[in-house]
Amino acid sequence: MSAARAASLRVEAERAAGCTRCALHVGRTQVVFGEGNAVAELALVGEAPGFHEDRAGTPFAGRSRALLERLLGDVGIALEDVYLATVLKCRPPGNRDPLPDETAACEPYLYRQLELVRPRVVATLGSFATALLSGRALGITRVHGQERELELGGRAVTLYPLYHPAAALYTPGMLAVLERDVARLPALLAAVGATGGESPVARPVDPDVDLAEDGAGAECRPVQLGLF
Asked: Which residues of 108-140 are buried (b: 16+ CB within 10 A; e: fewer)?
């Protein structure tokens, strides 16, 4: 099963490598498709490649990757056991927010990745990925650390919003919150494992929260997923 999923992910990565669905392909160094365990129980999804990711060809490169590796390692989760992805597969100029047409062009790749990997917990890093995968405009400062249940391809999946490590690197208070939220991941994974793959009962998230309230990701367009 692992080999079959890995092979299918490679096919999707090869397809994405030549993608010209939006204008971002003009300025990219390479497509940053995703990487990690093809049968991971935990997937981390960020917004888009930055400078270091564009050069390395991997999600969460540089100091962000080092921080993620440290935080996960502190709670007994190896980075190589996780699946890493971003909503956009090409770097937006100047690391600006993704535009609606760019999101529409890239989101089928992300949905397919999650469908193939079949993670039990999907941790969204930052407001943009959280809003996209939840289908609601959820500000990360209001919903971080609050899990909720979604359906992906007929499967129950726990969505777990987290602060993005790149932001936490420069804000000690945010880093402390991120550490506390990451510390809950083993319990979440154990809970869904104990229920045979079904997500635990999620704490409710305020559906009226607006991204613009906290100034994070105010330009993002919440999208109702075809798979959720």
From this structure: ebbbbbbbbbbbbbbbbbbbbbbbbbbebbbbb
DSSP helix/strand/coil, 25: helix
As a whole number of angstroms, the distance between CA 23 and CA 92 comes to 9
Angle between helices 172-182 and 62-74 (to 10 degrees): 50
- Residue 23 DSSP symbol: G
**CA pair distance 72, 61, nearest whole angstrom:** 15
Residue 38 and residue 210: Cα distance in Å, rounded? 34
Q: What is the pLDDT of residues 115-149, one digit of tens each?
A: 999 999 999 999 999 999 988 887 899 999 999 99
The domains located in the chain, with CATH, are 2-213 (3.40.470.10)
Is this structure's pTM higher than 0.90? Answer: no
pLDDT in tens, 47-100: 999 999 999 999 999 999 999 999 999 999 999 999 999 999 999 999 999 999
